[in-house]
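Entry for the shared binder. Reason: the reviewer on the internal report wants the predicted structure included alongside the sequence.
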Amino acid sequence: QVQFVESGGGSVQPGGSLRLSCVGSGFIFSNYWINWVRQVPGKGPEWVSGIHRDGSTYYYDRVKGRFTTSRDDAKNTAYLEMNDLKPEDTAVYYCQQTRGYFAGIFEFVGRGTQVTVSS
């Protein structure tokens, strides 16, 4: 059974930074893309970033240049470094594994971690 435990969220002011982590279990972590997705109540979910098992990274245009994703397969852990945070980044952030490039099918497995950006 696929499981993720996300952590690292919090409340920050605009321009602030956070580093999210997610630990995956129940699958061979190193064989999968690891994506970060986010959900704002009342709005549709958004794909934020994806990292291939070879380390190649891909980003939603609105976070490109501000967010960086990475992975440590020895620890079954993925990270999302978020800088220059904006109020529109406020959401619950989740990890999701996929076999290929994210295809728009969202699966919220873990409990997520809340990120709130406000002054």
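Summary line for the report: Residues 67 and 82 are 4 Å apart (CA to CA).
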